[in-house]
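Entry 14. Ran structure prediction on the chain below.
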Amino acid sequence: MTTFAQTQASETLQWAQANPVGWTRRILGFRPWKRQRDILMSVRDNERTSVKSGHGIGKTGVAAATCLWFLYSFPESIVITTATRDIQVRQQLWGEIRRMCSHSRVPLGGEVLQTELKLGDGWYAAGFTAKDETSFQGYHPPSGNILFVYDEAPGVEDRFWDAAEGCMTSEGARWLAIGNPLAQEGKFYETFRDPNWNNMTISCLDSPNVRAERIVIKGLVTRSWVEGRKRGWGEGTALYQSRVLGQFPETTIDTLIPLAWVEKSIDSQWVKEDEKDVATGVDVARFGSDRTVFCTRKGERVVEVEAFQGMDTMQTAGRARAKSLIYDGSRITIDETGLGGGPYDRLVELGVPVMGVTFGSSAMDVDLFGDIQTEMYWNLRLRFENTAKGKNGPKISIPNDAELIADLTMRKYKVLSTGQYKMESKDQFRKRKSRSPDKGDALALCFARGPEILVDVI
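Output, structure tokens:
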């Protein structure tokens, strides 16, 4: 059986090169919706294409289809893909590439590996995690046909953009940068101010499922998801602007932890996981709609976030004790405020290593912070900044938990007349957002330290 890779008839290749949408339909069996078709045509017609979008619009699918169209339509071409996290490279983009290869209507040919597709000497596609910029240097295929695909592009550091730039010298070079907009800074943001890039914005509201208010294409974002985010996040928040509208969020001076820092700390590879430094933060529910949350970290990596509703004092203490035992007698840090006092007392009685925190109490550094809660969150802020910007000092990695991300990025603070920083209370947040920031508080608790360690805000 003849594979597409073996088809060298000039008229066939000319058709393929001119018709990326038709090729993906006829060869792959992939039926792109309108905005996905726009992306394919932009890569055909423009040297550089940057796409910012909301979640669930099919970014991974169209990126995979673009890679395969380019590779098979241009003999002796090279396709290089990257993303900041290994899971994005291996399981998401390359998982979709492997799936499309195995389910294509016409056999494609070539050797498909985990993150590599080989068609011949100097004719291949490869995926890399953005760790070493030298991986993106020196690609100058004799054919001149090279495609760079930057998936989740806002998280890719500037040096990797600079490295790829040196390979964009031939007429056949193409570059697709696609992702969820995080902040009004960085190389991805700059592409939307650079006339050399063809810019596209895709909102969740553009999705056929949202527009039709029913499932038109399986897997795309739905109207119910959008409405849920509108109620949970609010239309004016950075999360809604970024993850729903596909717009760079407006940064306000009273936002404690910027969304861009949090996003870059999701499943970060640059943190230390320490089995000997384990702690669980427990935020105890105070009202009927609140939940008791357990957040566990190993060193700098958060490994577990669990939320329970309707848990009484003894159940809370019992689960906290179990957490400590599972992790070899690790410490429990619990908010003693209100109903948290009961579980704390019981854990002390059981001999569990436990530290109690009262969020409204005085900070360790009273000159800088209005209360201990603000100091603890500022410690988190510094960890997120260090991780996002590659600075020295304590870092953090969190799971991709939408509620946790919302708790962190929607919390506000102010500067008091005394010059102290003061974060809004849980009650103030609840009045503003109609829910409690339980997961954010549990995260702050699990990273809380004893009084011997002070926070450096400089």
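The chain has a mean pLDDT of 88. Will compare against last week's run tomorrow.
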